[in-house]
Amino acid sequence: MNEIRFPILLVEDDPALSFIIRDNLEQNNYSVAVAEDGEKALKLFSSGNFALVLLDVMLPRIDGFTVARQIRKTDEQTPIIFLTARSMTEDKISGLSLGGDDYITKPFSMEELLLKIKIFLKRSNTGNTNHFKSELTIGKYHFNEEELMLKCPGYEKRLTLKEAELISLFATNLNTVLTRDEILVKVWGSNDYFLGRSLDVFISRLRKYFSHDPAIKIVNLHSIGFRFTVKQEE
Q: Is 222 exposed, middle or buried (0-12, 13-18, 19+ CB in 10 A)?
C-alpha cells in the first residue's frame, strides 16, 4: 500500500529555492503545488485541499501576510509556516499574530523544514489525531480540540491549531502556574524569543474568546508565566 501523500501548497517567488524545496518534499512523498505570487496562492488554496501551507513573506502582487489573512478568514485549521528572511524580525511576530503557526528563517536546512512539516502534520487533523481529547467543559464553555471549536451559549469560535493546543494546555493545568518557557516548548516546541513575543498576542486572543464568562481568567505573572483559572460558582 502506498504511503499517503499529504498535499502541500508552497508559495515562493524565488525559482531556485522553490525548485529545491519542491524536489525535497516530493522525494519525501509529499505532493506539492507551487505558487510564485500571492494572487496565484489564493486561487490554488481556494480550489484545493491542502494539509499545510509554506508561505514566503515577500511576494509579488499580494504579500504573504495578506495571503495568510485571507486564508484565515475561511480556514482556521490548515497549518501555515512562514518563510522569512533572517533580518526581518518583526515579520516573524506579525506572521504569527495573523494566524501563522510557525516560521522558518532563510537560509534554512531541508532537514529542519522537513521536521517542522512532520510535526505539524502529526498534530493537525490531516495527520494523527489520536492525541486529541474528548470535549472539555471550561466554565460556561465547551471546548473540542479535535474540531478546533470553542462554544458557549450565544457564541462560538473556530480556533487555529495553535490556539486549540494552548487552550488544551491551560485546561489540563487549571490553577497551575505555567512558565513562559514551558508553554512555548510544549505548544511550539521551542522557547524562541520571537515566539515568546507572539505568545502575548495569543494570550490576548484567548482572553477575548473567554470574555463571555467572567469566571475565567488568564492571570499574567510578570516575568514568570500565566495561570488559567476558573472560579467555581458558590
A: exposed
Q: Looking at the structure, tell me whether residues 116 and 145 fall in a common domain.
A: no
Residue 24 shares a structural domain with residue 108:
yes
Q: What is the pLDDT of residues 115-138, one digit of tens each?
A: 889 878 876 654 444 444 468 999
Q: Which domain, by its residues, includes 28?
A: 7-123
Whether residue 11 is found in the same domain as residue 116? yes
pTM across the whole model: 0.66
